[in-house]
Amino acid sequence: MKIARNIETSMRPNAGARAWQRMLSGRRLDLLDPSPLDIEVEDIAHGLARVARWNGQTAGEHAFSVAQHSLLVETIVGEIEPALDARFRLASLIHDAPEYVIGDLISPFKAALSLDYRAFEAKLLAAIHVRFGLPAELPPEITKLIKRADKIAAYYEAITLAGFSREEARRFGQPRGLSPALVNTLSNLSPLPTTEGEVRFLKRFKQLSAQRGARTRSRQAKRP
User: Fold this and answer.
1) Contact at 8 Å (CB) between 209 and 178?
2) Can you tell me the distance from the alpha carbon of 41 to that of 43, in angstroms, rounded to the nearest whole number?
3) CATH match of 21-222 with 1.10.3210.10
4) Which whole-number Å values give the CA distances from 5 to 19, 28, 54, 120, in the listed order?
5) Where are the domains of the chain?
6) What is the pLDDT of residues 93-144, one digit of tens each?
7) N or C: which terminus of the chain has fewer CB atoms within 10 Å of its end residue's CB?
């Protein structure tokens, strides 16, 4: 099990300072040394549905949440690789799960931070993966696939919600090869109310978990 451990020591300037976050489930998650045992999907769904993408600078009555973005990325992954194992579709759904406690920082700000933000984020994501039976570190091809879907989602969010021109949004890449139905969906994004985003995220998580469980039982039944 390979979990990132190269967190800058400057992240803990006072060894006695509180470094844990209390969740509504009652769990206390140590942010600098997260344990999979302190992670619950209900807390993740609740948090992500209340974290705004694009620093909240999106059109609409509601913020476009990380929960809704996560659902979008999982849908795109399924479009690109329809036969993908359910466990990796689950990984795509929770690809931004660390943001349920650390928020969604825009990329330029992440780069400007003095601490190793990405290592911090990776360590928390690894613990989340372990909690839900995924590899702490995903295969490179799966990471690449999720990143591709993430950029496609960002492109359409940028032009439909965040006020970017198509030229400006090309920094995320130029999406190609998507079905007309999916392009239509992506071109007409509408931010969900907080509670609906939370419910939809939880529902999809449970669906993918059930599919994964059914496949595992099927493989076990076929063993001699």
Assistant:
1) no
2) 5
3) yes
4) 16, 20, 29, 8
5) 21-222
6) 999 999 999 887 666 665 655 557 778 889 999 999 999 999 999 999 999 9
7) C
**Sequence letter at residue 139:** P
Distances in Å between the alpha carbon of 163 and those of 59, 166, 180? 8, 10, 23
Taking the CB of residue 121, how many other CB atoms lie within 10 A of it?
Answer: 18
Low-confidence residues in the chain, pLDDT < 70: 1-18, 105-115, 215-224
Asked if residue 86 lies in contact with residue 216, where contact means CB atoms within 8 angstroms, the answer is: no
For the four alpha carbons of 103, 107, 108 and 111, in that order, the dihedral sign comes to positive
Question: Average model confidence (pLDDT) for the chain?
Answer: 88
Kindly state the tokens that stand for 5: 């451990």
Closest CA to 138 of 179, 87, 76: 87
